[in-house]
Amino acid sequence: MRKAEIVTAVILGILSLCIMWKSGEAPSWDPSVARFDNIGLIEGEGPGSGFWPFWLSFIMFLCCIWIGINWFRGTSTPSQSNEPFLDAHGQRMLMVVGGGLIGFLIVIYVLGFYGAIPLFLIYYMRFLGGHTWKLTTTISVGMTVFCFFFFDIAMRIVLPKGYLEPLFIPLYEIFL
Amino acid sequence: MTFTKQLFIGLVGAIMVTGTMSSVAVAFEPDKPIEFIIMAGKGGGADKMARLMQAIVEKENLSSRPLFPTNKSGGSGAEALISAKNASDPDHTIMVTLNSFFTTPLRQPGLQIDNTTFAPIGRMAEDSFLLWVHKDSGITTFEQYLETAKADGTKWVMGGTGRAGEDNIITNYLNNEFGLSMKYIPYQGGGEVAKQVAGKQLNSSVNNPSEALGFYESGDLIPLVAFTDERLPLFPDVPTLKELGNDFSYFMQRAVVGAPGMSDDALVYYTDLFTKVYASADWQEYKTKQSLMGDFMSGAPLKEYWNAQNARHTVILRASGDIK
Amino acid sequence: MDILISLLDGIMVALQPINLGLAVLGVVVGLFVGAMPGLGSVNGVAILLPFTFVIQSITGGATSPMIFLAAIYYGAMYGGAISSITLGIPGASTAVSTTFDGRPMALSGRAHIALVAAALASFVGGTIANVMFTGFAPLLAAVALSFGDPEVFALMLMAFATFIGLGGDDIPKTIFSICIGLVLATVGFDIVSGEPRLIFFDITGFSHGIRFLVLAIGVYGIGEMLWTINTNRHGTSMTQVDVSARSIIEAIKEFRHAKRGTLIGSFLGFFVGILPAAGATPGALMAYGVAKLTSKDQSSFGKGNVNGIAAPEAANNSASTGAMLPMMTLGIPGSPTTAVLLAGMVIWGLQPGPLLFTNQPDFVWPLIGSFYVSNVIAVLVNLAFIPVFLWMLRMPFTILAPMIFVLSLVGTYAAYLDMFDVSLMVLVGIAAFFLRILDYPVAPAVLAIVLGPIAEPKLRQSLLFSDGDFSIFFTRPIAGPITMIALILIFLPLIKFVKNKITAKKT
User: I want to staple B118 with a disulfide (CB 3.0 to 4.6 A). Which of B51, B77, B204, B257 is the partner?
Assistant: First the structure.
């Protein structure tokens, strides 16, 4: 945990610096404006467009240094902890559940929501949860059908279908 | 599914040649819900119109598949333009536009949007602009306005929707033409601007009639001059700027466009659909009540109108220093 | 007296069979839309707006369609609490602060108490707001009109001040959390300069800004869920609730402890709600902050204090009624939902504005009457459905968890119709999980992304107005006192800290 604390603080510190750099960006249509021209108080107008994000990220950066000092002195809870940041169980959990979510997301891009939802539910309930096939199938099919009728038909919120789109044309014919 | 620019131009050419857009035997029918992109957030003028059009389509049963509105207000319309440009199915993607259709591609050249590649389905109306002040300001004519604003210099505050948008363009015009130095403060929406004038936080605004109508009826806001070619039927006593001797008028287009790459058949279908929407009693009533102007326009004339607007906005924005 | 007679007439119209039927239908639809993560009143109202045209063509007039939409609005406000409590994901932005205490209560088997408290507090909040709306509409409209940019900014400062105590014990991490929320809120388009800002890697998805629900669902739907799965290693983590009439009655009795939170929420929510540009979300967040700040038992907030549910729930209902006021009398929306309602009114041929009450009494009074009626219907329908929602919690965690994940992704898409937002939400969720382990408080960031987009433009518009002079926040009669109080509240912890140091040195 102690190592994770300082690593995270350093990453967030770098992130803050990146946002500070990005905040000073000049407008794309006017290359004559220099970087960081917009982060100050403009005479008679108040803060420029980069003022708010720049100085807030600067405070974020200072906080990261502060977190680093607390880490060095060992005053914050995680910096005193000798427990691992994620133990073996935690790492496995992150792999299967977090990885499952990312997989879910990728499948949505390919097969759309209605292809991805049953696959994810089967993955999670059957392979992680160890439920019976009967229960798994019932819930995953039920959930998918419910979502289709709730979103696409009742609410007129058309969810992406990916490559499964042609399959839905006849359904639109019937229900819309 | 990206199309090359050449293909766009080719298609556009083909569309121009097609010419007549009346209801011939339709070769295209939508087979899935039609994405209806709105270039503004929920509740604004464009959103109101889009939802009214959607309602008319449903009520009169004009389309075999529903329109589903998607608000894409990001980047002053940039998000909507990009999203339409990259639409995976241009035949089922249409968009309702405002003047950011002209200004945003100019202001953000990095987007690489050529607005003439969009399919010209139909211009549904043109919104007008008037100059408003609070009744307690004691100003009743445009001449008085000019005097007071000139005397107040930068203390005279004009509010409007966004930077380099319609309201800002008119304000810049007034400043340059009449030697004023009014301060311009951008807000999120026109309704808020009207309220700020009614609450005496701002000195004046150039709201659309629909945004200020409530306060006009209650007598809080007074229109001084209209930026139109002829007097507005709702405000018969308000002179136009042209009558006062300055050749300037400015409108907001309210048009429906198709995603670049839309097929000719689909364009014919949508033009026909929106011709019917335009002709409906509901639309006509709304147009009168909100003091909207402009006749239906589509196809080649609409494209010409866009070219003229592009040229005009380039001049205007260059003059005000909003583009190089 | 005139008002009472008009109101009674209005209620009678609202009780006509067709209007009553529409109100019941609207409340039920709203309740389910609101209970769905991601979907809130704004989606419900926007989606059903075209349908109201059909109602209008049947009944004639704008009254019945408006009653229907107002009922959806009401129902959704009640429903938002349901997913906040049972699933731990805020149903809508207005219900975020309900998760702070709702989730711990559900985890410790007190979901029934939380749900009942939310329903009853909503009812009280709605009723108080209705009474104030009926009695003082013109006066309150004048108050709303006198609020300019500096006043709204001062109010936002006050909202921050009430939230100083929300963070954890680790000061730099709390400040970091607030700042990152505010910075993320600036991504997108700067209305004052008209420039795109912080569009990382030129991805178009950033041009609309980082949406509030992307952060909220990511943090609560994904981050917190992963954290729960990681910390509760042995099967289910939710304590089972028994679903019986007895437990509901017990829960109703329990509500007496939530009196303080309910009252704070009702009044504060209404006041914030009537201010244009604020809306129900800041109202609910402020109510939570104030309820905590003034409580004798501050440490129990965030761990399942029933006042922590009552305050934001009373406030969001009260604020949504309040937000109707600037919409009807000034023609400007106080929230996204009222923006859509406003569009509806214009489409039906009404002209919102100061004269609406005088010119359209046949529309205004039945609508106000329907607020009272819908509020009663909503609390009854909600109480009746509570056992159904509780039953959901009895599902094994290995079924509930994947369903929550699915609803988080679908809900985010449904809210914004943008796959980029869904991807960003998942990434935010996983990042939030890591930060959660390291004791970074996340609630301040979620708050900041709501207030940031209101506060920053108001600050800059005020300064444009004053030629860059900061004294504008202190010299105006309304803004001045609010700014001063806010600054005192912000620096109070610092003063306490220094005082403690001094006393510590003496002893």
Answer: B257
| Residue C378 near residue C122, CB atoms below 8 Å | yes
What pLDDT is recorded for position A25?
82
C-alpha B240/C-alpha C504 separation (Å) is 75
DSSP for C140-161, written as a single string: HHHHHHT--HHHHHHHHHHHHH
Strand partners, A41: A47
Q: How far is CA C229 from CA A90, A98, C8, C37, in A?
A: 9, 11, 53, 20
Q: Which residue of B has its CA nearest to A151?
A: B68
Inform me whether the pLDDT recorded for B25 exceeds 60: no
Residues of chain A in contact with residue B110, where contact means CB-CB under 8 angstroms, are 28
The confidence score (pLDDT) of residue B21 equals 41
Confidence grade of residue B5 (pLDDT, cut at 50, 70, 90): very low
pLDDT below 50 — which residues of chain C? none
pTM for the predicted model, two decimal places = 0.88
Q: Which two tokens stand for residue B114?
A: 């050529």
Contact A8, A76 (CB under 8 A): no
Best B32, B83, B103 member to test A by mutation, with max A CBs in 10 Å, is B32
Type of residue at B304 = E
- CB distance A157–B31 less than 8 Å? no
Q: Which pair of structure tokens corresponds to residue C287? A: 């109510």
d(CA B293, CA B233): 10
* pLDDT single digits (tens) B144-203: 999 999 999 989 999 998 888 889 999 999 999 999 999 999 988 888 899 899 999 999
| C147 touches B: beta carbon within 8 Å | yes
Structural domain span for residue A123: 88-175
CA C505 to chain centre: 44
- Give the whole-angstrom CA distance, residue B51 versus residue C339: 12
Q: What is the ipTM of this complex?
A: 0.94
Superfamily of domain B130-226: Periplasmic binding protein-like II (3.40.190.10)
Phi, psi values for residue B254, rounded to 5°: -120, 90
Residue C233's φ and ψ, nearest 5 degrees, are: -85, -20
Nearest Cα of chain B lies from the Cα of C180 at a distance, in angstroms, of 21
Q: Is there a contact between B94 and B35 (Cβ–Cβ < 8 Å)?
A: yes
d(Cα C464, Cα C419) in Å, to the nearest integer?
37
**How far is residue A96 from each of residues A101, A129, B245, C229, measured CA to CA in Å?**
8, 12, 74, 11
